[in-house]
Amino acid sequence: MRLRWTTGASRGRPIAFQIIEASTNYEPEWQIVANNIPDRTTFVDNEDKRMVQVSGLNPGTSYRFRVRAVNDFGLGDASWPSVVYRTPSAPPQKSPSHVGGGGGSVGVLTITWKPLDSGEQAVPVGVATDVMCDGYNGSALEVTWIKVPNIREVMKGQVLGYQINYWMDGEEDPLIRFIRYPGQVESGLIIGLFSDTNYWTNVQVYNSAGLGPPTPINYPTEVFVHSHGPNSVRVTWRGIVTTRVGEMALAGYRIRVCGITENIYCNNYYDFDRVSEGIVDNLEKDKIYKLRVLGYSEGGDGKMSEVVYFTLGGTVQFDPKTAEILAHAICLTMSSVLLYLSTLLSLCCL
To answer: What are the pLDDT digits (tens) for 63-122?
Structure first.
C-alpha cells in the first residue's frame, strides 16, 4: 500500500528516518510495519511531501496508519492516524506453523498445528444466524438460516456459498460430514441420513480464501415435558454443544417455569448439573404452565430455549398468536372435557 503525507517540523536537526506504524481491526495496538526508512528515499515532487510503499500487509484487513520522524535528538511524536484503508482479499499468504503429531490409536495418527491469526487468514468473520433444522422426509433434513451480509467488513471478499456441517448425536469423536451450496442462499437439504437418529448441524459461509466460523449452538433444543407424578413433570432437552457460556465454563442447566400469563423471568427456576433432563415439581392441577431451558455459568445465564407450554399431563400444543388467555379465565377441568366428549359420542350414536 502506498502512503503519502506532509512532513512536520524538524525541530533543529534534519529528519533522518521515517517510521510507519499501523493498527488493524484484529490487532488495535499500534505496531511498526516499516522501520528506519531513510528520509531521502521518501521525497516526492514538493519539498514537504513524503511517500513510501508499505509491503507485507495481510490481505482482506482494515488498516490505519501513522508516521513518526527520527532526527539526531531521537524519536518524534506520532502523527494523527489516517482513515481506514482495506487491503484486497486474497488466499492466506502464510501457512500454519508448529506442525506436529503423535499419539492416537492403532491406524490413527493425530496431527497438530498452530492456527493462523485472524488477520492472516483473509477468511470471512461473519456468521449465519437463526439456524433452524426441520425434517424433510425419512432420510433428509432441511436447514435454513439468515444470510451473512455480503459486505467487505464481514466477508473480506465475496460470498461464494454456504457449507452445512452435520454429525450424529452421542458420538464421542463424531465424523463430521458436510455439503456445500454455492451462492447467497438461505437454505439447503441434507440427504442420505439414518431414520430415527438425532443429528447436530451448523452452517459456515465461505469465500475464495476459505470458511468463516461455524454458527454456535448455545441454547438447549428439543425441549419436551413428560408426565411424572401427581404434582411434577419430567423435562428433557438436548444440551448445548459448547462447554462455555460467555467467558465462563458451563456450570449446568436452569429451567425457568411460570404460569401462562406470568413473566418468564419470575423468580421460579430449577437448577441442574450438566445433564439432559430434570424434574419440575410443586405444580398445580388444571393449570397451564410455560418453561424455557438455558445453560448458566458463574458469569450469568445463557440464551434460553423456545417457550414450551405444558400441564401435569405433559407438553400441550398452544399458539399464543391465535389463542387469547385471560388472567381471570376459568380453567377447563378434566371432568368437563370428559363430559363434552361423552355428549359428542351420545349425539353420534343417535
So the answer is: 899 999 998 888 888 999 998 888 876 666 667 777 887 666 777 778 888 776 655 556
Residues 234 and 279: their CA atoms lie apart, in Å, by 5
pTM of the predicted model as reported, rounded to 2 decimal places: 0.41
Are 155 and 213 contacting, i.e. CB atoms less than 8 angstroms apart?
no
Find the distance separating the first CA and the last CA of the chain, reported in whole Å.
90
DSSP E strands, 247-341: 248-249, 252-259, 269-272, 277-280, 289-297, 300-304, 308-311, 314-315
Parallel/antiparallel/unpaired status of strands 289-297 and 252-259? antiparallel
The three grid cell numbers given for residue 234, joined into one nine-digit string: 419430567
Is residue 154 within 8 Å of 148, Cβ to Cβ? Answer: yes
45 by Cβ neighbours in 10 Å (0-12 / 13-18 / 19+) ranks as exposed
Q: Cα separation of 321 and 307, whole Å?
A: 13
Q: What is the CATH architecture of 129-211?
A: Sandwich (2.60)
Beta bridge partners of 38: 17
Q: Per-domain residue ranges for the chain?
A: 2-86, 129-211, 221-315
Fold (topology level) of 221-315: Immunoglobulin-like (2.60.40)
